[in-house]
Amino acid sequence: MTNKKQRLASVDALRGFDMFWIIGGEALFAPLLALTGWSLFAFGHEQMQHSQWHGFRFYDLIFPLFIFLSGVTLGIANKSLQGLPLENRWPVYRKAIKRLLILIGLGIVYNHGWGSGIPADLSEIRYASVLARIGFAWFFAAMIVWHFGPRAQYAIAAAILLGYWLLQVGFGPLTPADSVNSWLDQCCLPGITYLNRPYDPEGLLSTLPSIVNALVGVFAGRWLRQKAGQHTNILVGLAAGGLACLLVGLLWHRVYPINKELWTGSFVLITSACSLLLLALFYLLVDRWQWRYFNYFFAVIGCNAILVYLGTSLVNWQYSSNSLFGGIAAALPDAAGTLVIACGVLLLQWLVLRWLYRREIFISP
């Protein structure tokens, strides 16, 4: 296996780890807490809930980590379109636009966004979505990477964060009803918002700083490429970058709160820090120490991450798990039965993904 493939394997494994919590991993802590009473599981269950407004929990990391990983693949590819004639660039643009439109469309499908039925009422569709934000963040990061050098990319990332900060704090208080995000979504976002809030957590303005999460991934991917085979240098670089982002993010939090709903700049830095540190950890486990079974378990999930995400909305895995394991669960105490069903949900999805993985069927936009 070449170094490039090994790096991609660690990225797939980390992507699988990220999606593991989406497909049902978050549901394990509550029954484990009920069975054992251990405070560790109480902490884990708390971390599996999104922060209500200001603050940060582990579950807030899942979304930006996926965006970060999309940037890592851009950095590893190291593609540049600078100096190429339009006829050579256009096929790349067309493919990028197609990917963006597919993700926007799949996001609407995920949201069950057909309004009150067919024919669809366009004003009742939720166009903003997690998949759309992933698409926009990747698309604009790709355009920046393809048309600017590394120094300019760093400058653009810094300008986005500083400009977004000045815009938010200059407009008014960072509250759900009074933020500039709410004003812009009510003014310009078509359709409805999530739970009919004044703002949409995947709305227009907060998509802008998410581009920086992808760009930090680009910087990490470029570092992996440049230092290929130099394990110590790779680990030190990723860890140093993560700790630097963590320090700056925590200091910035004092005047600019960490907030996932508004995707504040401090939230970008904290999530980028965690993403870099996790990538360092997975690089150590998968590429340096060659933990084959660890890698395989998560890579099976990570190689079809978009399909996994769609499946959580379109397939009732809970019903399937109850059908297969409900008899066992009913014979056990409530907490143990709940744990059996939760493990069944994970097992069924993993087996389907393993079937695809073994046949090298990888579905991506």
Global structural class: mainly alpha
Tell me the count of domains: 1
Shape: globular
Largest sheet: none
The DSSP helix count reads 15
Provide the low-confidence segments as ranges.
1-7
Q: What is the rounded distance between the termini?
A: 26 Å
Order of helices and strands: HHHHHHHHHHHHHHH
Any idea what the radius of gyration is?
21 Å
Protein name: Transmembrane glucosamine N-acetyltransferase NagX
Keywords: Acyltransferase, Membrane, Transferase, Transmembrane, Transmembrane helix
EC number: 2.3.1.3
Domain Heparan-alpha-glucosaminide N-acetyltransferase catalytic: 7-231
Write the layout of secondary structure elements.
Blueprint: H1 3-20, H2 29-36, H3 39-47, H4 62-77, H5 86-110, H6 130-147, H7 150-171, H8 180-188, H9 207-226, H10 231-253, H11 265-288, H12 292-302, H13 305-314, H14 317-330, H15 334-358
Helix pairs in contact: 1-4, 1-11, 1-12, 2-3, 2-15, 4-6, 4-9, 4-11, 5-6, 6-9, 7-9, 9-11, 10-11, 14-15
Descriptive notes:
The chain is mainly α and about 375 residues long. It has one domain. Helix content is about 70%, strand content about 0%. The chain is globular, with a radius of gyration of 21 Å. The two termini are about 25 Å apart. The model is unreliable at about 1-5 (pLDDT under 50). Keywords: Acyltransferase, Membrane, Transferase, Transmembrane, Transmembrane helix.
